[in-house]
Amino acid sequence: MHFHPTFVPHLLVFSFILFLMGLYGFLTRRSALVNFICLEVMINAGNLALAAFSYQYQLLSGVLLIFTLIGIAAVEAVVGLGLIWLLHHKTRVNPFSPS
Amino acid sequence: MDLSFFDGSLLLFSVLSFVSFGFTLLVLFHPNPLYAAFSFVAWLITLSVFYLQIGFEYLAMLQILIYAGAIMVLFIFIMMLLNTKADRDVWQFSLKNIFTLLPLGGIFWMVSPILWNFKNELKVFPDFTFTELQNGAVQEKIATFFYEKHFLVFESLGVLLFVGIIIALGLTSQKEEKN
């Protein structure tokens, strides 16, 4: 059972609300890790909007963009977590827990 | 009036949306970052069901394999290694942050009809049909599109991942300074 094409506006609004929730979490939480996860929520909300547009226009470019974004998110996570580990190593402060 | 979409998919969409919102709220408001990360994994799985429902099985598989399977495991591993503690200030609600989001919502409200009407003016040459999406034939088209037509994108992604690994190794293998 697939979604009907009339669900595309629903999906777009849904992804926009998810994006706003991620942004709210990014602004309010003080833990570095949860900020990271909220960034991932925003990226995934954008991915869902791209998938919805790709479905509507019947184009595969959106799917290619989503794949690229998933790869970039993976690199971002690796480098970001490496930086956090380095910060912990140098200062002995746990950046995941707020001071 | 077209009522053809009342075939259970509306119910499925509603249930999935509520579950997804629930997990997102847990990510945002759970005091313990470890539980927030586990909720995020569950949220990613519900998102992959959305991809399944619009016919992109390949994306759903990637979402589970890469996001829930690789990236989040790395997050949870680092969290456990650093012994995270609960964030006590998480429930402090601030109206200021809500007001920050309002202009964004207003921009979306103004731009969305323009984006929506854009499809009438755009001449699109579709890569697949809805029938192909229904019977799964689109996966072969995705493979051709990715691995033949846009091969360079994959090459550059590979290079990017390789550079990311080198940077992470350089960051984490630094020797401790003697005081």
Task: Give a brief description.
The complex is a heterodimer of chains A (99) and B (179). With 99 residues, chain A is mainly alpha-helical.
Task: Give an account of the 3D structure.
The complex is a heterodimer of chains A (99) and B (179). Chain A has helices spanning 8-28, 32-57, 61-91. Chain A is an all-alpha fold and 99 residues long. Chain A has one domain: Orthogonal Bundle (Helix Hairpins). Chain A is elongated, with a radius of gyration of 17 Å. By secondary structure, chain B is mostly helical. Chain B is built from seven helices and no strands. Chain B has helices spanning 9-29, 33-53, 57-82, 95-121, 130-135, 138-149, 151-172. In chain B, α1 (9-29) packs antiparallel against α2. The longest helix of chain B is centred in the middle third of the chain and has 27 residues, at 95-121. The model of chain B has no long low-confidence stretch (mean pLDDT 80). At the A-B interface, α1, α2 and α3 of A face α1, α2, α3, α4 and α5 of B.
The secondary-structure class of chain A comes to: mainly alpha
- Ends of chain B: how far apart? 77 Å
- Overall helicity of chain B: over 70%
CATH topology of chain A: Helix Hairpins
User: pLDDT below 50 for ≥5 consecutive residues: which ranges of chain B?
Assistant: none
Order of helices and strands of chain B, N to C? Answer: HHHHHHH
What's the CATH architecture of chain A?
Orthogonal Bundle
- Binned, the helix content of chain A reads over 70%
